[in-house]
Design a protein that fits this description.
The chain is α/β, with parallel strands linked by helices. It has helices spanning 3-24, 27-49, 68-104, 110-141, 153-167, 191-208, 244-247, 261-265, 271-281, 322-329, 341-353, 364-373, 390-398, 403-406, 419-428, 440-452, 481-486, 491-518, 521-538, 541-553, 560-591; strands spanning 149-152, 174-179, 186-189, 213-223, 228-237, 285-291, 295-306, 333-337, 357-361, 378-382, 410-414, 432-435. The chain is 56% helix and 13% strand.
Length: 592
């Protein structure tokens, strides 16, 4: 029986048992039967999928123990799965949010605007759930990164409270702040984790407060010595409150005060569990008191050291007159490395509305050719791409022999940007980064900032004539191994692909010969476009460069003599490439 069929049958049995319990059994008997079946179902799903996370619900069925190493391995795989799946979900979500932004800039009816806003709200809610799942999996696996840096404590609190005030849907809810003046201005610790804790706790209060307010009180509790101390935080609200029974599970994973809490107020039930884990990993502790109808008070303590103001990284204020910003980026030539089709269309539309000239590709070879033959002001680089990732392509750019290519500003794009990624960006020479999903204003600010800082000589936009020297011809042997692997090791399929490529090349040679006589440059450009994909697949760089320039020459600044020259170079180069293909195929066959 297939897994899907088995699980479907389990679901049908569960429905039948529920009906039986309701009609035939008393409450105690029904609860016992349901508990037994739940345990059986959980064990079965664990055998099929592996235990993704430990269940917060207690069970009496603990006779059989699982080997710790096996459980650790399973949890590690589960965390990897969560990380990969969350990234895959985030990519289309970023596209949905981005296209909704574009829609809002068009002329919409009031009803349409409400619908677009609803789409964005739902998308951000789903994104929040995905981020919490990823955060929880990292903490559970011990992969979360913590830092210890000098930061402005008072500025951080001010920024968090300001952000929380903007999140309120009910503006009547007041948020008050009381900070002990004895707390130093600069502390040493992890500012991002403190922000996360406060945003989560205050944000949680905002959801459950219908009238009244929220008070954040921060005091210097204990001074161990002149530099080490404990800071106590209190987030108190006048919300719906909780019973003592509900409080017992408030920090459990996937548990909320009542079963309908998520339906009414939203959330995954992971937020407070994440907060508790972060507080404890920072060396602190957290507790909560609450009373139904009165409110809730979260208290936590964290150790800190006094910092040095001179070591605090001064943040540039990301503010810009948006109208002026659009004028500044108008005409900017942007090369985008992005493999997702949805994101390609999104960023192309976004940049075109600002008057930018955009080139988009997921190919390192094609991108480098664009940089050689066009004046590019800025490169937007997706870090997570198949084949060659953003760091590897950046390395090709930064080590290029031409200075104007080396110096082009590069902005990294990523849906999950870690501290390690930031180190890598610095190592490879990436100038800046944007975390997806980003707002149009975020992108505009980054473009203006990096275009302003650009140092690069202008190059001519006119076609660069190719000079194919003898030492360039077939200087790199062709390796068909990657394509052979894509053909699942089937020589017949590989031979068929090569035969099709040769047929397209012969067709290109004949078609261009005819169209050169008739001055049909548009048709020559189409013929070049048709063969380009095959050349890229086989990684025949010299031929590909010739074809790209033929195609460009047929679009702008048409120069028949130059096109004839390029065509002549193709006729010289192609037989040599064809010979190399034959040798490469023989090499593959010898492995059989």
């Amino acid at each position: 029986m297939k897994t899907k069929d088995l699980l479907n049958q389990m679901s049908r049995i569960e429905l039948t048992l529920n009906e039986f319990s309701f009609e035939e059994l008393n409450t105690t008997e029904a609860a016992k039967l349901k508990k037994s079946f739940s345990s059986f179902k959980t064990n079965l799903e664990s055998k099929i999928f592996g235990p993704l996370v430990s269940s917060p619900v207690d069970t009496d069925f603990t006779e059989e123990r699982v080997d710790n190493s096996t459980e650790l391995s399973t949890n590690t795989n589960a965390n990897k799965l969560i990380a990969n799946v969350s990234h895959e979900i985030r990519t289309p979500l970023n596209g949905i949010i981005g296209f909704a932004d574009l829609l809002k800039e068009t002329k919409l009816k009031e009803e349409q605007l409400e619908q677009v806003n609803a789409i964005q709200t739902a998308s951000y809610s789903l994104l929040e759930i995905i981020n919490e799942l990823l955060e929880f999996s990292k903490l559970s696996a011990g992969l979360e990164e913590f830092e210890s840096v000098d930061f402005s404590f008072h500025d951080l609190v001010k920024d968090v409270v300001y952000l929380c005030k903007t999140l309120r849907t009910n503006k009547k809810i007041q948020i008050h702040t009381k900070i002990d003046e004895a707390i130093p201005e600069t502390l040493i610790g992890d500012p991002s984790k403190l922000s996360q804790i406060l945003l989560n706790l205050i944000g949680n209060s905002i959801k459950f407060v219908e009238k009244g307010g929220i008070t954040l009180e921060i005091t210097l509790k204990e001074l161990k010595d002149k530099r080490n101390f404990i800071i106590a935080f209190s987030v108190k609200d006048t919300g719906i409150g909780m019973t003592s029974k509900q409080l017992n599970h408030i920090f459990d994973s996937y548990r909320q005060a009542e079963y309908n809490t998520s339906a009414k107020y939203g959330g995954t039930g992971l937020g407070l569990s994440i907060v508790k884990q972060i507080v404890e990993k920072l060396g602190g502790n957290i507790n909560v008191t609450s009373k139904v109808g009165v409110g809730t008070n979260f208290n936590f303590e964290l150790p800190y050291k006094e910092g040095n103001d001179s070591k605090v990284v001064k943040k540039n204020k990301n503010t810009i007159n948006l109208q002026k910003g659009r004028q500044l980026v108008n005409g900017t030539r942007v090369l985008v490395f992005e493999d997702n089709v949805l994101n390609q269309k999104l960023i192309e539309q976004r940049l075109s509305t600002w008057g930018c000239k955009t080139f988009i590709t997921d190919s390192a070879t094609y991108g480098i050719n664009i940089l050689k033959n066009k004046t590019i002001d800025i490169v937007l680089m997706d870090l997570r791409m198949p084949n060659m990732n953003g760091f590897q392509i950046t390395e090709l750019i930064r080590t290029h022999k031409k200075n104007y290519i080396k110096q082009v500003p590069i902005i990294a794009l990523s849906a999950d940007f870690s501290a390690r990624d930031q180190e890598q960006c610095s190592k490879y020479g990436i100038n800046d980064f944007i975390l997806k999903p980003y707002s149009p204003d975020d992108l505009l600010i980054k473009l203006v900032k990096n275009k302003k800082n650009m140092i690069s000589p202008q190059i001519q936009e006119t076609p660069n004539y190719i000079e194919v020297k003898k030492d360039m011809v077939s200087s790199t042997q062709i390796d068909l191994t990657p394509i052979w692997k894509e053909c699942m090791g089937q020589i017949e399929l590989l031979e068929e692909l090569l035969s099709l490529f040769k047929k397209n090349a012969d067709e290109f040679i004949n078609v261009v010969k005819i169209h050169l006589t008739n001055n049909a440059f548009e048709e020559i450009g189409l013929a070049a476009h048709k063969i380009k994909a095959g050349l890229a697949m086989l990684q025949t760089e010299n031929l590909l460069e010739i074809i790209v320039q033929i195609q460009n020459s047929c679009k702008e600044n048409i120069d028949k003599k130059h096109i004839e020259f390029l065509y002549g170079r193709f006729l010289i180069e192609y037989p040599l490439v064809e010979s190399e293909l034959g040798l490469a195929l023989d090499k593959i066959k010898s492995k059989e």
